[in-house]
Amino acid sequence: MSDLGIRPAAPTDIPAIVAMLADDPLGARRESPHDLAPYHAAYRRLADDPNHHLVVAVREDRVVGTLQLTIVPGLSRRGATRSVVEGVRVHAEERGSGLGTQLIQWAVDESRRQGCQLVQLTSDATRTDAHRFYERLGFTASHVGFKLTL
Amino acid sequence: MSDLGIRPAAPTDIPAIVAMLADDPLGARRESPHDLAPYHAAYRRLADDPNHHLVVAVREDRVVGTLQLTIVPGLSRRGATRSVVEGVRVHAEERGSGLGTQLIQWAVDESRRQGCQLVQLTSDATRTDAHRFYERLGFTASHVGFKLTL
To answer: A146 lies in a domain?
Structure first.
C-alpha cells in the first residue's frame, strides 16, 4: 500500500471523521452524519486547546483513520501526566492493513514526546477484537471502565 | 457528623492529598509522600488549566477526601463533551460515612454544569468494593480499561 501520513485534523476533514465514527456497530446508533454542526463546535473546542490532539491518517489524500489524544496532568503516581486515547477509528476498507497499529503507535510516541508516564483508553466490553489488538500492542486490561450518561 | 465542604484544592492541601493517595493498597507502591516536589509541579499544571478541577472534601478544617475532574470535548457521540474522574480518595477514618458518594455526586453535578453528556472513570480490576459503589451510583461497567506504562 502507498504511504500513510498522520497529521492534525482540519475542519475540512470533519465529514470523513464523522462518517468513520458512524460506520461502526456502536457508532451507528449515536452519531448524526447528516447534521455536522455539533461536530464543528466540538472541533473548535479541541483546536483551541493544546492538550488535545485530534489527528487523521491520510493515504492518497483520503482520510482513512482518526483518533483523539488528550494530555491529562494529575497528582497520583507521583504527579504523573497521562494521556487518554478516544475515538479510534479505521476506515472499513483499511481494516487489517496495520493502520490501527500505526495510529496507536503515533499516540504512544506523541505521549512520550509530551512527557506522559502512562497512556490509557477504554474499549467497549463488546469489542473483543479491539481488546486483543490493544493487548498485542502492550496495553494491560487492568481496569474496569465505568460510564454515566447525563 | 459535622458539615462537609467540597472546594478547589490549594497548594497547602498537597501533603494531605498525597497522604491519602499513598494510604491505599495500590497507592502505597507508587506514591512518594516524602518528596512532594513532583506533586507541586503537577498541581501547578492543573491550576493553570480551567478544564481541570482538583477538589478536596473538608470537615472541621481537615482534608478528608479528594478527586480530580477533567473536562474533555470530543467529536464522537455527536460532539459530546465528557468528564473524566481520576484520583478519588477518602480518608481511612471517613470510609463508610457517605463521603465517597458526596464526592462523586459533586463530580456528576459539576459535569452537568460544564455541559458534559457523559461522566467516565476507570477503577482497578482488583477494587471490587469500588465497582459496587460506582454501580450503586448509576454508573455502568460497560468498558474495559487499558493502560500502557511508558
So the answer is: no
CA-based nearest distance B122→chain A, Å: 4
Q: Which of A74, A135, A144 sits opposite B141 (nearest CB)?
A: A144
List pLDDT tens digits, range A57-75.
999 999 999 999 999 999 9
Q: Has residue A28 got a pLDDT over 90?
A: no
> Quick one: which H or E segment has residue B67?
strand B62-72
Distance (Å) from the alpha carbon of A14 to chain B's nearest alpha carbon: 9
Q: Residue A29: which pLDDT band, with cuts at 50, 70 and 90?
A: confident
pLDDT higher than threshold 90 for residue B2: no
Query: Is residue B9, in this structure, part of any structural domain at all?
Result: yes
The enclosing domain of B50 has a CATH number of 3.40.630.30
Number of domains comprising chain A? 1
Q: Which domain holds residue A43?
A: 4-136
Which among B70, B74, B112 has CB closest to A42? Answer: B74
Q: Tell me the DSSP string of A59-102.
A: ETTEEEEEEEEEEE--SHHHH--EEEEEEEEE-GGGTTTTHHHH
In chain B, residues 40-59 whose CB comes closer than 8 Å to chain A? 40-43, 45-46, 49, 51-52, 54
> Are the beta carbons of A73 and A114 closer than 8 angstroms?
no
